[in-house]
Model the fold of this input.
Amino acid sequence: MIRTGFSAAGPTLAEVGEYEVIRAIRQAAPSALNGDDAAVFTPSVPNSRVVATTDMLVEGRHFTPEFTTPFDLGRKAVVQNFADVEAMGARPIAAVLALSAPGSTPLEVVRELAAGIQSKVGEYSCELVGGDVTSGEQLVLSLSAIGSLGGSLPPLRLAGARAGQRVVAHGNIGYSAAGLALLQSGAQIPTALYPLVHAYQCPQLTPGRGLIARAAGATAMTDNSDGLVRDVSALASQSNVLIDLYSAALAPDELLCAAGELLGEDPWAWVLTGGEDHTLVGTTEGDAPVGFRTIGSVRKGSGVLVDALEPAYTDGWESFL
Done:
């Protein structure tokens, strides 16, 4: 089933006030660390380092209520941030939420949003430990993720790829963009294609894969948020290498091909430029780590190729269009 839409019923944020909004969030996403001026953490392992990142979701720019629900939006906010932590080879340990919304927003929308966050952070054995709320002209949520990088191995930076390595990936590629295209088309979406829509509403990753990759010898990693070619290009540029992707490993599967046929679109565009899958993409000397698959190789040179040729599609997400 595809669920979309935001509740329009019940008291609004302006009617209940700030403290009731905060109380609703804390009830939906409880944490013993939430309630003071700031959360205090105890290092989980010796010799650990702190990893921090943040991402925003702006109504009308990153999402629209007609294509998602507050619950799924909360889950998606966690995935896009925790994927950044995992891409460093670290383990997410907490999240912090800053929320701006019109006073006319029903309290139930915020309650469902917080429940979605709680649902997803729970999959990582994490908690929402604090944040802030304020009024604004549109719904904006900014989630910050905090992670722990243990041990003496270096983090998985963009500059860590080396010639002779293989390129590996964990997660679907092209699903989120295909799901969004289906929703935007207004077409009747076949049940078989629901997984694509669900991938847009909340991409799926297996917790801990970045940690596993780092332990298995990966040296560089990023996540596919702005489009595969664009994100891999950043990795290649920072590492001063050429990355050659394998079309056989990236070829659109049956779901993507079916969506492409339904919409009259080339599914390769979703694979190469779609983004928002938050697929973990890294490089390693040895075999692909558990949960990863090989999608290319690293060579001397610069740029990104597909089967030694220029990619058919190279666009990606641009924040200021």
In short: The radius of gyration is 20 Å.
